Amino acid sequence: MKQVTREWVEKAEADFITARRELRARKLPNYDASCFHAQQCAEKYLKAYLQEIDIPFSKTHDLSVALDLILPIEPLWESFRPQLRALTVYAVEFRYPGESADQELAREAVSFAKFIRLKIRRALKV
Fold it and tell me: In this structure, what is the dihedral angle of CA atoms 39, 13, 120, 106, given to the nearest 10 degrees?
């Protein structure tokens, strides 16, 4: 694995840990942060994979854009699109006043991130 890919994976793992920690917090859980870090985990894993297979990518946070770049190599990953769309929304929707995530949404976001994380770790042989 390329060094830069490994760095993307490390950053993704840090986000996954943070998302899970906020979801499980007994005192003052930050479900908004859990959703945001779940999205960041998935984004960084997608970018790690793109980096590893030498496909350039932009600085977008729209996970469907990254998925579209991967589909020529991994067409079965189209099945990930619903989870990636949801994570993209969760990352933006709860960062500003007006909307807040609850425990159920945070649990779903972490579950989606866990799924994407496992699939890409398997593809990267991590």
Answer: -30
